[in-house]
Design brief:
CATH architecture of the largest domain: 3-Layer(aba) Sandwich
Order of helices and strands: EHEEHHEHEHEHEEHEHEHEHEHEHHH
Shape: globular
CATH class of the largest domain: Alpha Beta
CATH topology of the largest domain: Rossmann fold
Number of helices: 14
Number of domains: 2
Number of strands: 13
Length: 356
């Protein structure tokens, strides 16, 4: 049994893919290993150990400007201070494995720390192909856990000396499944569901335009800096066929279940946990065409070009009127958190034996 530390600055401040990963993996690893999550958010009782590091935190912004490219923006510097404050507790705890999940200077600081102490570093590729995970790979973690095959190939080409393993994110099939009772909503059917942060890279405006052209309704689950612009466009183009709500993560399955199809037109995704959550509720997916999303979605939906509104609208219409039977749910079974947790548990046991 190894002692595992997970550094997750935003846990219990926001619920994004990273924070969901922390919660789901930690509660499944606890018992096989001893897990402690270091976070800035106020702790709530969990099956695993939580250590709150008190430091000013706020909801992360989608764009950090030029300073963010060099990790000297306010958010990055707060994460650095958070990491430095964690060091004495990491020393005292004598952890065998550390997961630094916030990138930037945290990855650099923890890698230096583990080189000195002999602990192992595992970095999941939550940032996706690009600058942030290239930075993570620069510091040569003991293991880089790629979320998709294309990300694994990219990482191996960039840093062939780093051990790269393919371990995707997962879905809790006890919460997300076709037996969940749908929420009762006053929206004309068929309904397209989109769960997204309202930030430019998610391209929700394209979704609104395509849904309007396809004569469907849109249920939008999300919040963010663009909510004013998004709501204005949604009401103008869709009228009563548009509804945006912000709901607790625990209620999301019942909102997915009202839909006939799920869509997310984001330009890039490191993984896209919402895809597998929607598929677990047996919704086909219409999304941007690339290798990563082709791997995740398989034959449970349609890959499209969201910038071509005519094509995007037609694909939404086709998906909404096609009987996919249980293909989406069956595809989601590949991503059960129980299976993913077992892979991480085996990995942790393996690298800690190497250390010994």
């Amino acid at each position: 049994m190894a002692k595992v530390a997970i550094l997750s600055f935003y846990s219990q401040i926001v619920d994004r893919g990273v924070e969901t990963f922390v919660y789901e993996i930690s509660r499944r690893l606890q018992g096989r290993h001893t897990v402690t999550v270091f976070q800035a958010g106020i702790p709530r009782p969990q099956k695993y150990n939580i250590c709150q590091i008190k430091i000013k935190a706020q909801i992360p912004q989608s764009s950090k400007g030029l300073a963010g490219k060099f990790y000297i923006d306010v958010q990055s510097l707060r994460i650095l201070a958070f990491t430095v404050k964690a060091i004495p507790m990491l020393i005292k705890g004598k952890f065998d494995v550390i997961f630094p999940l916030n990138g930037g200077w945290q990855s650099a600081t923890i890698r230096i720390f583990t080189k000195i102490t002999g602990a192992k570093t595992i970095i999941p590729g939550e940032a996706g192909i690009g600058r942030d995970d290239a930075w993570n790979l620069l510091f040569r973690p003991d293991v880089f856990a790629a979320l998709t095959t294309s990300q694994a190939n990219w990482a191996r080409k960039l840093t062939p000396e780093v051990q790269t393993m393919l371990i995707p994110n997962g879905v809790d099939l006890s919460k997300f499944n076709p037996k969940v009772r749908p929420k009762e909503l006053n929206l004309k059917k068929p309904i397209v569901v989109c769960a997204s942060a309202l930030v430019p890279v998610k391209r929700v405006k394209l979704t609104i335009k395509a849904v309007a052209k396809a004569n469907l309704s849109l249920l939008l689950l999300g919040d963010g800096e663009m909510k004013g612009v998004i709501d204005s466009l949604g009401k103008r183009l869709l009228g009563v066929g548009y509804l945006r709500v912000v709901v607790p993560y625990s209620d999301i399955p019942s909102f997915y279940r009202v839909g006939k199809v799920f869509t997310l037109a984001s330009k890039t995704e490191a993984f896209g946990t919402s895809y597998i959550e929607a598929m677990a509720c047996n919704l086909p997916v219409v999304t941007t065409s690339d290798d990563s999303r082709a791997e995740i979605i398989g034959d449970a939906g349609i890959l499209t070009d969201p910038t071509d509104i005519e094509k995007y609208a037609k694909d939404l219409e086709i998906a909404a009127h096609t009987n996919y039977r249980n293909k989406p749910y069956n595809q989601s079974l590949k991503f059960s958190w129980n299976k993913i947790a077992q892979k991480y548990s085996t990995l942790i046991s393996g690298i800690t034996r190497l250390k010994d």
